[in-house]
Each structure stands twice: as C-alpha cells, then as structure tokens.
Amino acid sequence: MNSARVVIDASVFVASIQPQERYHADGRLLLERLTKQKVEICVPALVLAEIAAAIARGTTDSGKAEKDVALIQEVPGLQIITIDQELGILAARIAARRFIRGCDAVYVALSMTLDVPLITLDRQQREQTPNMIIALTPGEALTVI
C-alpha cells in the first residue's frame, strides 16, 4: 500500500486500545507502523463518539472511555474530518445502495472522497464497499505496508 493517507474505522481503534479484543495486536501494530511511516490517518468526526461508546459499553467505565478518546486524538497524523452536507449525502447514497449501516457508510464515503484505502474490522462494511475502494482488515494492511 503506497498511500500516504488511509481512513480507519472506529473498530480498529477500539481493538488497538482493548487488550482483550481479538485483533488487538494487529490494530496496535498497524497504528504504530502508520505513525512511524508518517501516514495520515483520516477519520470522520463521529469516530470519537463511536470509540467512546464501544469502550464505555464494554467496560462500563465512562472515565476510561473519555481518557481513551483523548489519547486517540493525540495519535500523530490523525486528521479528524467534519461531516459536511456533501459527505453526508454521499454516505446516505452509499448506505441505501450498499445496504450498510449509516455510520459505516460515512467511513466508506470518506474513503471514496479522499480516494484512499479503508481499514476496518467490520466484515459487512468491507464486503459492501464499492469496488473502487480498497477495504482491508488491519492484518491485510500490515502485509502491504
């Protein structure tokens, strides 16, 4: 993967934070490599709420969730992208046509808009991503970085 930018789904961040997650090692190693290689990590602003919700629900510890979100915001190369009307409309079109959840469609739309790979642990999101977008798991991304 020669892209200087990627879009990463919240599932990868959550896995990288939570040692008990099945793909913790892959998620953590991926973020380390991307940071080391100065790859820009693009995420829609909703990623912060998704990460906080997943960690808070999984741990029932709102303080940990807020702390982890603050740490994610400090990841070198992280670019938090505002969801404007244009991105929202594209995401709605993708959600309707590809039969995926709205939040997942936002990541796909961002990848499409930026013309960069999408890295996610969400199987349905990867499988329903339009062919013009490269969608990878963290493990797959590690093999091409």
Features:
single chain; alpha/beta; Rossmann fold; five-stranded parallel sheet; 8 helices; 59% helix; 12% strand; globular
CATH topology: Rossmann fold
Helical segment count = 8
Helix/strand/pairing category: alpha/beta
Order of helices and strands: EHHEHHEHHEHEH
The CATH architecture category equals: 3-Layer(aba) Sandwich
The helical percent reads 55-70%
Q: What is the rounded Rg?
A: 14 Å
Largest sheet: 5 strands, parallel
Distance between the termini: 5 Å
Uncertain segments of ≥5 residues (pLDDT<50)? none
CATH class designation: Alpha Beta
Number of domains: 1
Strand order of the largest sheet: 3-2-1-4-5
- Overall mean pLDDT score? 94
- β-sheet strand percentage: 5-15%
CATH superfamily: 5'-nuclease
Shape: globular
Write a structural description.
This protein has 145 residues and is an alpha/beta fold. The protein has a single domain (5-144), classed as 5'-nuclease (Rossmann fold). Helix content is 59%, strand content 12%. It is built from 8 helices and 5 strands, in the order βααβααβααβαβα. The protein has helices spanning 10-17, 24-36, 47-59, 62-73, 85-98, 102-114, 123-128, 138-144; strands spanning 5-8, 40-44, 78-81, 118-119, 135-136. A 5-stranded parallel β-sheet has the order 3-2-1-4-5. Helix 1 packs across helix 3, helix 3 (47-59) packs antiparallel against helix 4 (62-73) and helix 5 (85-98) packs across helix 6 (102-114). The relative contact order is 0.20. The mean pLDDT is 94.
